[in-house]
Amino acid sequence: MKIKLLFVLLVSLLCSGCATLLNRPITNIALHTSEPTAIIYQSDTLYTDHRNRCAILVDRSPEPVVLSVKQDSLYQSINIPSKNALAYYLNIFYSGGLGMLVDNDRPERYAYPRRIYLDLAKTPPTYNRYGNPRYVRVSIPYVNHFRLTPANESDKINTGFWGISLGLDQYHSPQQYLNLTVGAVTDFDAPILMPYERVGEEESMFSVYFNLANNHRISRFHLGYGLSYAINTWQLRYHDRFNAPPPTREPVTKTSHALGAVVPAYVQLGEQFMIGVVYRPTFLRFNTNPTLVYEHLISLDFVWRVQLN
Q1: Residues with Cβ < 8 Å from 105, sequence gap 6 or more?
Q2: ∠ CA(214), CA(29), CA(118), 5° rounding?
Q3: Around Cβ 288, how many Cβ atoms within 10 Å?
Q4: Are residues 54 and 162 in the same domain?
Q5: Within 42-97, where are the H helices?
Q6: Average pLDDT over the chain, rounded to an integer
Q7: Last residue of a domain, one of 108, 129, 150
């Protein structure tokens, strides 16, 4: 009996459309306007609040939403077209596309932008999708100060140059944003990239890291705090050139995985450029003993940031 019930339930789910299951026949659109105004939708008149915002409930439909917006003493019409909802396309993965047949004539199939910005300074007024700013960032951690403690080694401290990182900034309020960054840095000896001959024993350090931080923007300053996961490596190599003195020990490479914090501090120099210092201490190591060890990386970072939306 239970098997029959499960079979009936499975068949009914597979024969249902994702849009019908997940969406309601009505949806909400949040409107942001460039100035206070009155907005007419069907027979309702809505007024924006002190932040020039209002929200409307609209029926899902293949037809566009038609708004009348007061501009000076006249009302201008704005048409917001509908589109297929994401849930409609989920049928491809959920039921091999069968659910699209179920959703095909249902209003739940359709969707509208959730947030819209109306620019009333233009005649006729225009609209754009509205969202919190998102930036992609590319940075060069130019100067890097390392303090590492490889397993069964003394503290290794050095300052060098060069690195690269790629990140994404997503604002969740006007003055705060989350940053996700992946990067790699070295203690390269020279401040410019150039080949040079190494002789004898050479120690080097580099780190690959992943940062997730919440940041506050205060005027031109960006201050943050968050978590960091690092893969830190220390190497001892020997270069037998030009009658180098014999090595004191065998070459070795030691790598550790560690969890810690990240504290970035930047100053905005222009629309797209920032310069700052990033302090990344780690405390908990996973694959080496001892487990609790303080290590850090401090970088002088040059950032180029481009807005995506």
Answers
A1: none
A2: 85
A3: 17
A4: no
A5: 86-94
A6: 86
A7: 129
User: What is the per-residue pLDDT for 192?
Assistant: 87
- Residue 99: in which H helix or E strand, if any? helix 98-103
Instruction: Provide the 3-class DSSP secondary structure of residue 121.
Output: coil
Q: Measured between alpha carbons, how far is 162 from 190 in angstroms, rounded to an integer?
A: 9
In one letter, which amino acid is 202? E
Q: What is d(CA 186, CA 154) in angstroms, rounded to the nearest whole number?
A: 19
Tell me whether residue 8 is in a domain.
no
Q: What would you measure as the largest C-alpha separation in the chain, in angstroms?
A: 92
Q: How confident is the model at residue 309 (pLDDT cuts 50, 70, 90)?
A: low
Residues 292, 252: Cα–Cα separation, whole Å: 23
Range of the domain at 118: 18-129
Query: CA-to-CA distance for 103 and 17, rounded, in angstroms?
Result: 5
- Residue 263 has a pLDDT of 98
What band does 177 get if pLDDT is binned at 50, 70 and 90? very high
Q: Are residues 158 and 97 in the same domain?
A: no
Q: Which two tokens stand for residue 11?
A: 């068949």
What is the residue type of 245? P
pLDDT value for 15: 55
> Whole-model pTM?
0.64
Q: Which residue has the tokens 């002789």?
A: 199
Which two three-digit tokens encode residue 254? 């030691």
Q: State the DSSP H helix or E strand holding residue 7, giving kind and residue range, or none if neither.
A: helix 2-14
The total number of structural domains that make up the chain: 2
Place of tokens 């487990």: 291
CB atoms within 10 A of CB 65: 21
Report the half-sphere exposure of 301 (CA within 13 A, side-chain side). 30
Residue 165 in contact with residue 184, Cβ under 8 Å? yes
State mean pLDDT over 192-202: 73
Is 4 a residue whose pLDDT tops 70?
no
High-pLDDT (> 70) share of the chain, %: 91
